[in-house]
Amino acid sequence: MPPGLQNRPADRPSNNRRLSLLTGRKTVLAVRVIVIDGVPSYDEDFLRDSVFGTQVTLKSQYFACSHGKLEFVHAEHPNLPIDSNGVISVSVSKATSEGDSVIRNSATSALEV
After folding, report:
1. Containing H/E element for 48?
2. In this structure, what DSSP letter does residue 39 have?
3. Short-list 95, 86, 106, 112, CA closest to 30
4. Which residues pair with 87 in a beta bridge?
5. What is the DSSP letter of 97?
6. Can you say how many angstroms the Cα of residue 112 is from the centroid of all Cα atoms in its chain?
7. CA 43 to each of CA 34, 66, 84, 88: distance values in angstroms, whole numbers, following the listed order
8. Cα dihedral angle (85, 68, 62, 47), rounded to 10 degrees?
9. How far is residue 45's CA from residue 82's CA, in Å, rounded to a whole number?
10. Which of 34, 38, 70, 73: disulfide with 66, CB 3.0–4.6 Å?
């Protein structure tokens, strides 16, 4: 065997894939976050189409890769606008320089109201 190569364990697939066991119908809420020093370059319609649209989307690819066993549907909640169709924008009083985790935590808090 050439140097640096190893035999793979018999219980490990040759492609090293770690397949998800998640199946069924899952709700998804796509959140467009607006910070004090910037606005995303896309609007809610673009985000909605990217996640739930009719072409190659997050929804279609998970469905295809799971062989139809995992389906994403629009999140519905009493606090969401009736026409959100799984996408909402939230404004947070944070700057991009504060980092992703600070912005994500602030957006999550805003959604919990």
Report:
1. helix 44-52
2. -
3. 86
4. 30
5. G
6. 18
7. 11, 29, 12, 10
8. -20
9. 15
10. 70
